[in-house]
From TrEMBL:
Region (Disordered): 342-367
Protein name as catalogued: Gfo/Idh/MocA family oxidoreductase
InterPro entries (alphabetical): Gfo/Idh/MocA-like_OxRdtase_N, Gfo/Idh/MocA_oxidrdct_glycsds, Gfo/Idh/MocA_OxRdtase_bact_C, NAD(P)-bd_dom_sf, TAT_signal
Coiled-coil ranges (or none): none
UniProt xrefs under SUPFAM superfamilies: Glyceraldehyde-3-phosphate dehydrogenase-like, C-terminal domain, NAD(P)-binding Rossmann-fold domains
Pfam families, sorted: GFO_IDH_MocA, GFO_IDH_MocA_C2
Chain ranges of the Gfo/Idh/MocA-like oxidoreductase N-terminal domain: 39-162
Domain called Gfo/Idh/MocA-like oxidoreductase bacterial type C-terminal: residue spans: 185-257, 372-442
Source organism per UniProt: Imperialibacter roseus
């Protein structure tokens, strides 16, 4: 497939956005790892996706998890026991991410912490000479996403964003088809996040559970009185810590929308939605429809989040649909696609990692295991150009979600300047590009 030029073009195009321009990544100095040298890894955040990170690190050649890190010690001890049972090996525990960052025996980290921690932990790790796999969304706001890009380049680190569909052979085939004109002019992409999201109720305030370092859990965000509405997982639905489902599941789809259309950040954004079902503690909208317009490119992205009973769209509930002059391409999930050509919807090209690879791996060879494999390859080679999910995707895919959320919260159409990464004559909106950070947990300027 002819995907390498496309990946390089993507990185070149998106790296120059904002106030700092970066050259196209080149092969870096020779690796500090020999062919048989072990890479020591730590997993930060072990409640949800962190469990997949543990599994995916442990199937890589000559990679060993030496530390697990989480502010919740009872949870850490549970994972430690599971690790011992599964892998017949011991693993060390640490509550404080700063001690992991300072540990010179750790080579790489993966970040599955809440969203508000992603950028700061990534930047700290880059400054300490560690390479990073960071879950989606890469950032909690647009400003800190740009700081991640700057840090990765300044400190010559490999930062892989957890959008594993970029390592899917089938999805790469789909992108290749569109690049080579199979659909003709591709002018629109639609992102779908139709997930079963029930009420979380409202559990009120309560004492901090024994063994949880809530100050560390809060980190750079504003500190609230403790509530089980946040810890664990339901922080996704609070603005201080999460970004709603468009910034949760949706980052896979925002990334693919931009990748497939070959665009960066938009110039016009509008969003509308709300809470229509549950009188619960969620702050974010249950239903959200966002439009991202690219007038100069003649392209548009539609994005929709639904929380409950719904239809499928050509079989997809989580995925993407691309619209071209000759037909449409439907991506269902992470690793398969179909095309329908012409007005009569004649089935065309399709692809499926599960059937094509026969590996039985998580979501095919393009799943989490394959994405970690690509990360470790880039780490060993010291070569950002081989990455499937470079740091620029962490900034831009997250940034698209952030723009939609800002438009929803301000309840108006916004005009954005992708070059400066600021809004046009809109200081109220500009204030939402960045947050106030707690003392000791500030996301730093990269100079």
């Amino acid at each position: 497939m002819k995907m390498e030029p496309t990946r390089r073009e993507f990185i070149k195009k998106t790296a120059v956005a904002g106030s700092v321009a970066f050259a196209l990544p080149t092969i870096m100095p020779s690796s500090v790892f020999g062919a048989n040298d072990r890479i020591n890894a730590a997993v930060l955040g072990v409640n949800g996706r962190g469990k997949s990170h543990i599994k995916s690190f442990m199937v890589q050649d000559n990679v060993q998890i030496t530390h697990l890190c989480d502010p919740d010690m009872p949870l850490l001890k549970k994972r430690q026991a599971e690790f011992k049972e599964t892998y017949k090996k011991d693993v060390l525990l640490e509550q404080d991410v700063r001690k992991i960052i300072d540990n010179k025996d750790i080579d790489v980290i993966s970040i599955a912490m809440p969203n508000h921690w992603h950028a700061l932990a990534t930047i700290w790790a880059c400054q300490a000479g560690k390479d990073v796999y960071v879950e989606k969304p890469g950032s909690h706001n647009i400003w800190e996403g740009r700081k991640m890009v700057e840090a990765a380049h300044k400190y010559d680190r490999i930062v892989q964003h957890g959008v594993q569909l970029r390592s899917s052979p089938a999805i790469n085939k789909a992108i290749d088809l569109m690049r080579n004109g199979y659909l003709g002019k591709v002018y629109m992409s639609r992102g779908l996040v139709f997930r079963w999201r029930p009420s979380i109720g409202d559990q009120g305030f309560s004492p901090v559970p024994e063994g949880l370092d809530y100050d560390l859990w809060t980190g750079p965000a504003g500190k609230r009185a403790f509530t089980k509405n946040l810890v664990h997982y339901n922080w996704h639905w609070a603005w201080d810590y999460g970004n709603g489902d468009v910034g949760n599941q949706g980052i896979h789809e925002t990334d693919l929308c931009m990748w497939g259309l070959d665009v960066g950040l938009p110039t016009k954004i509008t969003s509308m939605g709300g809470k229509f079902l549950w009188d619960d503690a969620k702050e974010v909208p249950e239903v959200l429809t966002s439009i991202y317009n690219y007038p100069e490119e003649g392209k548009i992205i539609q994005f929709e989040v639904r929380p409950w009973c719904t239809n499928t769209e050509d079989g997809a509930t989580v995925g993407n649909i691309f619209y071209g002059e000759k037909g449409i391409l439907v991506v269902d999930g992470y690793d398969k696609f179909k095309t329908y050509m012409g007005q009569d919807r004649t089935p065309g090209e399709s692809g499926d990692d599960g059937m094509a690879s026969g590996t039985g791996m998580d979501r095919g060879d393009g799943g989490t295991d394959g994405h970690f494999k690509n990360f470790i390859e880039a780490v060993r080679k010291r070569d950002r150009s081989v990455q499937n999910g470079p740091v620029e995707t962490a900034h831009l895919a997250s940034g698209l979600a952030h723009l939609g959320n800002i438009a929803y919260r301000l309840d108006r159409v916004l005009t954005f300047n992708p070059s400066s990464e600021t809004f046009v004559n809109d200081p109220e909106a500009d204030k939402m590009l960045k947050r106030n950070y707690r003392k000791g947990f500030e996301v730093p300027e990269i100079v």
